[in-house]
Design a protein that fits this description.
The protein is an alpha/beta fold. The chain has 10 helices and 8 strands. 50% of the residues lie in helices and 18% in strands. The protein binds uridine-5'-diphosphate (UDP) and magnesium ion. Uridine-5'-diphosphate binds at residues 9-12, 14, 43, 71, 73-74, 77, 94-96, 98, 200, 205-207.
């Protein structure tokens, strides 16, 4: 077995979990006799994560590190890790041990059977509130409905990718990245393995804020679907139809029904407010796409690297 496996974990204020993460991954990978490297991408942590990465690298050269100039976000951290990875297969995992390291071996097994992407499907989620479970479920269902990319249900970012998939993703330079959609988009042979998502080992979740999750959902939808842009058209046609019927009804009543009283300020007000709000929402939807187009046009780098450990170069794309 001389294939080389790269494991990437994004790190944002993960001081209390890093030693344990290294210990568990080393135990699992060495136990199976694999050749591996672990790339820890410090996404502008404000705690001591960076110095722990430096320490781990000193102790074991197979641990490598990248440190960003500030917090750029999960997708950017993972993208950087993939650009620096040299493995024949690359595994993405969270740093907080919610993705059990031993599942990586199962993924490697599937990869050796000939699959190019092996994604982790969450069979059960421990230690999460029902509201998070419910919103997550609803999110996957909506995405499935309105995009043409076949994004697997209940799948996070925990996955193994063959070198050719990593190279393909490397050529996708879009901003507001949504990897969970980009990986299925590239195609190749993909398969899922079930696993139970563990509670976070220590520290606090960074995605728990619903505002952040909402942004994430918007990125996902706008990156892979035009359906929201078409909604205004459909709603517009529907309301025009209703209005047309109403006009005919009013004319008929005026002409043929004696003593027709067509008053009602409230009705007028409700109709105007209703239409006004639909117009504002449509404008907002256009704004979401426009803002993203603006981001693309500016073409800023996705992230800036400040420092690396164990890498022979600094890529500042
Ligand atoms: N993370 C990151 N940058 C961020 C937020 C999170 O690199 O801005 C990392 C974090 O350190 C962890 C992973 O992304 O390794 C998942 O984050 P978290 O556990 O907070 O999310 P959840 O498990 O709740 O989805
Ligand atoms: Mg987590």
């Amino acid at each position: 077995m001389n294939e080389f496996i790269t494991i990437i974990a994004p790190v944002y204020n993960e001081e209390p979990v890093l030693h344990e993460l290294y210990r568990r991954i080393a135990a699992v990978m060495d136990g199976a006799g694999e050749t591996w490297e672990l790339i820890l991408v410090d996404d502008g942590s404000r705690d001591n994560s960076a110095s722990i990465i430096a320490e781990l690298h000193k102790k074991d050269g197979r641990v490598k590190g990248i440190s960003f100039s500030r917090n750029f976000g999960f997708q950017e951290a993972v993208t950087a890790g993939m650009r620096y990875a040299s493995g024949d297969a690359v595994v993405l995992t969270d740093a907080d041990l919610q993705d059990p390291p031993k599942v990586i071996l199962e993924m490697i097994g599937k990869w050796r059977e000939g699959y190019d992407v092996v994604y982790g499907v969450r069979a059960e989620r421990e230690g999460e509130t029902w509201l998070k479970l419910f919103t997550a479920k609803a999110f996957y269902r909506v995405i499935h409905r309105i995009t043409s990319v076949n994004i697997p249900l209940d799948t996070g970012d925990f996955r193994l990718m063959d070198r050719k998939v990593v190279n393909a993703i490397g050529r996708m330079n879009e901003r507001n990245r949504f990897l969970r959609g980009m990986v299925p988009w590239v195609g190749f042979k993909q398969v899922g393995v079930y696993f139970n998502r563990a509670p976070r080992y220590a520290g606090e979740a960074k995605y728990s804020s619903y505002r952040k999750m909402f942004r994430f959902a918007l990125d996902a939808i706008t990156s892979f679907s035009y359906v929201p842009l078409q909604l205004a058209t459909y709603v517009g046609f529907f309301i025009a139809l209703l209005a047309g019927l109403a006009i005919v009804a009013v004319i008929i009543m005026r002409l043929f029904v004696p003593d027709t009283q067509l008053t009602g300020q409230a009705t007028t007000l409700v109709a105007v407010l209703f239409l006004g709000s639909i117009q504002l929402i449509s404008l907002g939807i256009i704004g979401e796409y426009l803002g993203r187009i603006y981001d693309e046009v500016k073409g800023r780098p996705l992230y800036l690297t400040e420092k690396t450990w164990g890498m022979d170069r600094i890529d500042n794309y």
